[in-house]
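**Archive record**
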Amino acid sequence: MAVTGLCLVAFLLMHMIGNLKMFLGEGEFNHYAEFLKQDVLYPIIPHGVFIWLFRFGLLAFILLHMFSAVTLWHRAAKATPTKYETRKRLSQSYASRTMRWGGVILALGLIWHLIQFTVAPSHGSPFVAVKTAFQNPAWVGVYLLWIGVVCVHIRHGFWSAFATLGINTSALAKTVLNCLAYLVAGLIFLGFAVVPIAILAGGIQ
């Protein structure tokens, strides 16, 4: 669960950087989008094959992450006495208590995101598709709310992943990891939020 979670965080960071190319103009963003869909690893593999390999790989990581979450939850439920579980939940943070629901919301939002921008594009070029979608204030609000939930999930998950991998070995390490978790979550939120806000405000032409 820790490894797949960190891989998904790395994907979000790369995706965020790609989204920021919207500020470079239509030509640059469309070139980036077409490069991902057609030219990555060409001529080693045919045009358009890499993006499908990547999508299936990403889906596999998501399913493995979800399977791990369900498995660990089931094991904890069987092994933990009820009274102890109640005290444990009272001592947990809001993020840790809502990790499962956050994961579900993340998955549902991702499915919608893929349908809107990947599976069934309907607004011409990638640049136009993104710009058209985020000219709707309601969709921008829903998107920002979704990204916020994702980042709450990431904040706790990032810290927990490194703790699981044995890096949380001292009070200093715990503090550093906690600060890094907030930094990564905040960076991802700002990186994904700035594009739709700029489009809605007329800052991307």
